[in-house]
Design a protein that fits this description.
Number of helices: 13
Strand content: 25-35%
Number of strands: 27
Structural class: alpha+beta
Oligomer: single chain
Largest sheet: 10 strands, mixed
Helix content: 10-25%
């Protein structure tokens, strides 16, 4: 009986901690969770992680551990994915997000860190733990290298605070818990709520049940029921009336032809239905039926992090026609997804891509067909002119392309692998001089009814949607204006630089990436070499908001050199504008130098470890330490006083 009482007391003690510190624990879970989640899902999963930490933390507390540390460790363990719990609570008819300003910006800033490093950042930066205590919590949560995770968090800007003095022992139920630091106001406990579509909510709920019935019935259909491409839809009208509405071609959303010119939202929602078969009910019914229940043999391709779920309400029709003889294509828009259905020679395929926050440029085209070096695309209704240019030949003008009455263009691209010279071409070698071969891109211009003289580049990287190319020039000099936002890569300087770095396109997954920006963040002098070198960061921004970066150094002569790569990082983006990069470079004489360069806010570069140097300004060039020794550690001080670490070949570095 005594053991039971002790067990119950430990559980009640942990429960009291969770109730008392719920906002802080919720913040911990919210910022540890994967950065690609939307705010609504992240918030619900954070509540789940905190609430379901009770039992496990209670068991640890009964074994003599610190109850507060046990709760924190269990929250981290669950948010980091080491322990899966039940589904998060369902919230019908509402979307929720935290009211705390800056919380999601902080989450995006931590996107490049591991879950445990994100936890260390919160524990040190907001909860006031010192490095050792934070490492103990991470160790209990299952981190393989707690000390390393804490160091990564500190490099990202989490400075330990002096913990608030305790007003009572953790075991004293009548005493207050340690007073949280002042920054606890930055937590997700207070939320905004907004209703979802009030008119369609009831229909969507009924449609969900109806579609479930359709899926069950479709699983038992015989092949004869859906044998030929001209047959009717597979049980498209079985099930509840809501399901029939979803699959009824007559219910498809169709936007008026000129809606794009009279709206403040210029994206896929402004596309009218185009093509010669928009009235072909059997084709549309087959497309909808295949989307809901793909039959055996249907090729289904889903872009990374996209959802393959059937629509919950009638989707918007963007296109239905025959882009080429013998090929029928239907394109739908469903919220933040574009879905392409294709029929060819009795075969069917379904391609699904994300379109989160698409705009004038990223909603400018959809690929209808692709065959070898030929592609046919449907352009946005606001595209006035189109052409194809070779990115590797900046002096060559774009070749104009005729736009068909249905808004489609056909491009015949030269083979991209023509002219490759050796394995270095695939590794991101010099794009100048033709070592990578032609790099064809689509150059389009918007109608003046949208914006004056707005031309931009789109690259085909194998996805349903092309990738938008942009360029950010360097800001040089102490009195330089603030860093400029990415601009269209159509000017002479942008085209010249993209020609030199065009091989960066080779590593881009067009199914996941929405935009590619080339940022020349520094221009420096190299030792023993006349002329200046350009440091660049090419950022591939995914539809999820995450990004992959490639740091390159281009000497005055010769090929560009790869300095570093990093994935799932905020670096070189809107929330990662401060950058320091470092590499060891060998001069023509054979002598090795430690080089480093920073973005415009860098005021000093510091080298420690095997190399000790403190250099004012934005660049460093000193003799490198012996290759047999450990590499130097480089950091930079910003004008604000913050310290950032170098992004180098080891993949480190965050501000």
């Amino acid at each position: 009986m005594g053991q039971r009482q002790g067990s119950g007391a430990g559980l009640r003690q942990v429960e009291a901690i969770i109730v008392e510190r719920y906002p802080q624990l919720l913040r911990l879970a919210y910022l540890v969770l994967p950065p690609h989640l939307d705010r609504h899902t992240r918030l619900l999963r954070a509540h789940r992680a905190v609430q379901h930490s009770l039992r496990a933390a209670g068991r640890r507390a009964r074994q003599g551990g610190d109850p507060l540390a046990a709760v924190r460790a269990e929250v981290v363990r669950r948010a980091a994915g080491r322990r899966r719990g039940p589904f998060p609570p369902w919230v019908w008819g509402l979307r929720m997000w935290p009211t705390a300003e800056g919380l999601d910006e902080a989450a995006r800033g931590l996107a490049g860190l591991s879950p445990y490093a994100r936890a260390a950042h919160v524990l040190c930066r907001y909860d006031g733990l010192d490095e050792g205590t934070a490492a103990d919590v991470l160790a209990e949560a299952g981190a393989g290298d707690p000390g390393g995770e804490v160091r990564a968090a500190l490099a990202a800007g989490a400075r330990p605070r002096a913990a608030a003095p305790e007003e009572g022992a953790p075991g004293d139920m009548g005493a207050a818990w340690p007073r949280p630091p002042r920054e606890t106001i930055l937590h997700p406990a207070d939320v905004h709520t907004r209703p979802t579509d009030l008119l369609l909510r009831r229909t969507r709920i009924r449609a969900a049940w109806g579609i479930a019935a359709v899926l069950l019935l479709a699983a038992g259909l015989t092949r004869a029921t859906v044998a030929g491409p001209d047959s009717g839809p597979p049980v498209a009208y079985a099930g509840a009336p809501a399901a029939r509405a979803v699959l009824d071609p007559a219910r498809l959303v169709r936007v008026p032809a000129q809606a794009w010119a009279d709206t403040g939202r210029v994206d896929f929602t402004a596309w009218p239905a185009r093509g010669t078969r928009t009235g072909d009910r059997p084709l549309l019914a087959r497309a909808l039926g295949t989307w809901v229940a793909p039959r055996s043999g249907t090729a289904v391709t889903v872009a990374p992090s996209a959802s393959a779920e059937p629509p919950g309400h009638p989707p918007q029709l963007l296109f239905a026609g025959d882009p080429r003889p013998g090929i029928a294509v239907v394109v739908f828009l469903d919220a933040d997804r574009v879905v392409r259905y294709t029929e060819q020679g009795g075969r069917r395929s379904l391609d699904i891509a994300r379109t989160d926050d698409a705009d004038v440029t990223t909603a400018a085209a959809v690929t209808l067909t692709r065959d070898g070096g030929t592609a046919r695309r449907l352009l946005a209704p606001w595209i006035a002119t189109a052409g194809v240019r070779d990115l590797a030949a900046p002096a060559t003008a774009a070749l104009p392309l005729p736009i068909g009455p249905d808004g489609t263009v056909t491009t015949e691209f030269p083979r991209e692998d023509a002219g490759r010279q050796g394995p270095d071409a695939d590794a991101g070698g010099d794009a100048g001089g033709g070592s990578c071969g032609p790099r064809p891109v689509l150059e389009v211009a918007s109608s003046p009814r949208i914006v004056e003289k707005h031309a931009f580049l789109l690259a085909d990287r194998g996805g349903l949607l092309p990738v938008h190319l942009t360029y950010t020039p360097p800001a040089e000099g102490a009195d330089a204006p603030p860093a400029r936002q990415p601009r269209e890569a159509t000017g002479p300087a942008a085209l010249a630089r993209w020609a030199q770095e065009a091989c960066a396109l080779d590593t881009v997954d067009g199914r996941a990436v929405r935009a590619l920006n080339l940022w020349d963040f520094a221009v420096t002098e190299l030792p023993e070499t006349p002329g200046r070198a350009v440091w660049s960061c090419t950022r591939a921004t995914h539809w999820t908001g995450q990004g992959d970066v490639l740091i390159r150094l281009r000497p005055p002569t010769g090929a560009s050199l790869t300095v570093a790569r990093a994935g799932s990082t905020a670096a070189c983006g809107r929330f990662g504008q401060h950058l320091l990069a470092a590499t060891v470079w060998r001069a023509p004489s054979g002598r090795a130098y430690q080089l480093a360069a920073g973005s415009r806010e860098v005021t000093e570069i510091i080298a420690t470890g095997s190399l000790r140097s403190r250099t004012p300004g934005r660049s460093l060039a000193v003799p490198a330490p012996p290759a047999s020794g450990p590499p130097a550690a480089l950091t930079a001080t910003l004008r604000s006083g913050a310290v950032i670490t170098a992004l180098d070949s080891r993949g480190g570095g965050r501000d």
